Amino acid sequence: MQRFTRLFNELDQTTKTNQKVEALVDYFQDASEKDKIWTIALLSGKRPPRSVNTNFLRAWAAEVGEIPDWLFEESYHVVGDLAETISLIFPQSQQTVNRSLTYWINFLKDLKTADEVEKKKQVIGAWLQMAPYERFVFNKLITGGFRVGVSQKLMVRALSRHTGIEENKLAHKLMGNWQPENIDFQEFFFSDNPEEDLSKPYPFYLAYALDGEASELGDPSLWLAERKWDGIRGQVIVRDQKLYVWSRGEELVTEKFPEFGILKDKLPDGTVIDGEILAFKEGKPLSFNHLQTRIGRKNVSGKVLRNAPVVLMAYDIMEARGKDIRNLPLMDRRDKLEALVYEANCRDVLRISEIIHGKDWDDLAHERKSSRKYNSEGLMLKKKDSTYKVGRKRGDWWKWKVDPMTIDAVMIYAMRGHGRRANLYTDYTFAVWDKDRLVPFTKAYSGLTDQEIREVDTFVKKNTIERFGPVRSVKPELVFEIAFEGINKSTRHKSGVALRFPRMHRWRKDKPASEANSLQDLYALLEP
Q1: Does the pLDDT at position 474 exceed 80?
Q2: 405-524, what's its fold?
Q3: CATH 2.40.50.140, the chain: domain bounds
Q4: What pTM, to 2 d.p., does this model score?
Q5: I need a labelling partner for 207 at 20 to 30 A (CA). Which of 22, 315, 377, 476 fits?
Q6: From the candidates 36, 140, 173, 228, which is the catalytic residue?
């Protein structure tokens, strides 16, 4: 665990890619094979389930640290991170014990079935065996908040150097529903059994946002354009007469979308299709808000199925009749996909994403502007000769998103940030006018420069009206232009609306609060 803690610190202390990779390579050289498996799992987002309520952790740490609960909470608000707060207020350990990462993972799993008294005894005993930073990393694991600034792509690069296996092959091995408890390092990475996991998806190819003019991409005839659909990216797999549906987050979601069950009989064995899962009714896509009614539900009721039926809007194929065809040019894959969708003939659940034609970039720009009437976010631009790559790559696939909707709003609440921003007010609540009163309608925390954040923080501290723990209400004076991708009716919010991906577009220092937009302006943006 001490070696894993050192790795965590090395990854956290640098933003340089090469240094992160070197730290990982060194760790893989030192660690046991079981610890390597658990490290790979943690960096891939496979964390052990939370076994202790965080309220218990707060109370136990305050008790051992001999401070009152209110002081612990005040300290937490200033530090901004529960794991770090506990590690800081806890008394210095007299004697540390170096156990493996795997030992502590199993320790946390065993806690799941213990009663509160036993959990308290075990957790405090664990804290007493650790140095402060090791305790901090352990707390990250126990709270389920383990995150470190390294992408899976970098981890795969380091693992490739350690094992000598190509990055593409490693990325594919790490996809799917593998469980670290049941994995042997040598067998997992060095065996070559194509039958080992029939459900295994391919790594997704991800596009970058187009940050310049589309005309800079050159001849438009070299590019394929299609809608950027606003749903859930997914892969539908048919192998050995079984159907598997994977989300981009590597979650097996087959049971959440029973409509796709027909595809195991309609698609040939050895088929893997990439596309967008969309709520779709009466021949057109519904808003993402409809799809959200199905996300996170353990059981999909008949009512939900009727109100938000789904289709797979297919736009690529990676495997055809058991053969990996990702290295074929896009248009060759497209021909195979079109033939497959046509032969399946089940438009109720499987459609092909339409190609958008235009004689020049101006034509395509016009199509992009009309995206919202199709419930899409803009256009995708893909090089016609591009292969299907792994992860996010520049050059061949681009997201050409429609300009966001905007509204001018007044900041009325501010909350402290977390981690390195724990001493700054960085999370804000915004309101619009309903006649002579301000109605809150969204929160946002991104979009400002570091200098602007410091300016807002100074304003908050000088213009506080009331305090509610880490939150302050402030004088309603600052106006910000809020950008967002979509807006829907919502009965859960006082304003009656919910925004999709809200963020601060700019600080309107030129505008007084009285000139901010109204609730009626928001309602006018709702689809008819």
Answers
A1: yes
A2: OB fold (Dihydrolipoamide Acetyltransferase, E2P) (2.40.50)
A3: 405-524
A4: 0.71
A5: 22
A6: 228
